[in-house]
Each structure stands twice: as C-alpha cells, then as structure tokens.
Specification:
Blueprint lengths: L1 E4 L2 E7 L3 E6 L5 H17 L8 E6 L9 H31 L2 H4 L7 H27 L6 H25 L3 H16 L4 H6 L6 H4 L3 H14 L6 H28 L3 H9 L4
Parallel strand pairs: 3-4
Antiparallel strand pairs: 1-2, 2-3
Helix pairs in contact: 2-4, 2-5, 2-6, 2-9, 4-5, 5-9, 5-10
Length: 276
Amino acid sequence: VNAIQGKKALGLVIGEEGWTVYRQGYESDRDIAFLVTSLNTLSEAKRGQLNLDDVFIETLEAEAPPVTLVTQMVPLLMATDIILLGFFFAAAMVFNEKKENSLTALRVSPIPVFRYLLSKIGVNVGFSLIFSVFFLLLSGFFNGYTLTLFGVILLSSFVMSGIGVLLGCFYSSISDFIYPAFIVTLVCMIPGLLPLLSDIGINLPVSLVEWIPSYHVFRETHHLLFQPGESQAFRAVVVLAIESVAIFGLCVWAYRRRYFRLGPSSKMALTKGETV
C-alpha cells in the first residue's frame, strides 16, 4: 500500500509483529511522525481483531535524492505538449487548405479520402515521434523501456491528430477553432491533474479517464521514470487502437460527406467541361 503525501511515497507492510514503513530516505521526520501516529490510532481501533502494536521504520537509502520538479513535469509535458502537437498541426493544415480552396478540388480529384486523411494524420504522428525522441534524449530519460512508450505515443498522436482533422472539417478558421481547442487541451491535461483533483474531492474513475488519449502517455512515461518494468502497455494499445479506428472512421465519413462527394452541380460542371 502506498501512502502519498506531498509527492512522497511510503511503503507500508502489515505483518504479524506489527506495521513496517519503508521510506525513501528524503522524507521529513514530520511526515513519518504523522504516519506513525495515524497507524497507532488505527491499531488501537482494530485491537482485538489484529495484533498490531508496534511500528517499524526501515529506510531504503539514507541519502536518496528527492525527485526534482523537472523530473515530475516530464510525464505531464509528454502527455500534453507532444500529443497536442499533432492535434493543432493537423487542424492548421486543414484550415490552410480551406483558405487556398484546395479542399474544393478534392471533389474531382482521383485521390481517395483514405489517402488524403492518412497524409495529414501520418505527417503529424511522425512529428510527435521525432519530438518525443529529442525530448527524452535531452532530458536524459532515454532507455530500453522507451520502445513501449513510443508505441503508445504513436497511437495517442494518431487519435489526437485525427480529432484535429475531424474538428477542422467543421470550422472555417483558426479563430473559430480556439474554443473547442481550449476544451480539448483541458481534457488532455486531466490525467496530470488527477492528484490535484483528488485533493479537492473530485475523484474520477479510471475506467473513464483511460479513454483520454493523453492518459496512457502520462502513465507510461511515469512508469518509465519511476517504476521501470511495471507497465500496462497492452491495455493502452487496445484502448488507443479502438479510439484510432473510431476517430478515423468519423473522419472518413465527415470528409466524404462534406468534400469528397460529387454533388449535382459538380456533375453538371464536369459534363460541360468546366473546372470545379
């Protein structure tokens, strides 16, 4: 069981002889005293059911360095900046083509809708992967476990880029896109704000939060930094794969209906040899 207070993790083992607290080595004596007092109170309340009279404290490392703020910010930056990169760039590419009236020409273009959408989403997925590699290299956290993280980033970026392309289909300019983009950004930041939300009494179920694409990037990056080997990458891949198929299907439906469908006026223009 982990007792979290002020970003400090304390291991707690319940045995026949009593409680054993495992500390990292940098926690303050005040935190330890607070925990011991709480355990003694709980032990007295449970007396008669459990024979837990003593509390033992074992320090894993006497001078373990505390986790720096920069290290704590890495999972949040990976889950927001890198994933949102594809979201904003994909939408901007669509808006630029609308401004140049390139989307109108798609009605008579031989390019299928699948290829058009994959060209927009694929480029931004590549940008996210390249940016994540540079970010991990510069921050010094690149190791063997990053291959799993890159797979999660690939799918998460695919989902977010698809959302950017999908929303770009329904808005005419970046100025109109600001408010939905703000909402999407707030939603993507929820996984990193879960401890803060819990402190103010807002407890979101994991079964709901895990459908946010940035959640899996945040979780895998956290495991990469603090708990190597303990990963739920398989579940993350399954959830993100489902989201990827759903978002891409919506993009195909929206763009085929709005831009790739050849309407009566376009057919008449083609018959007369006019340019659409």
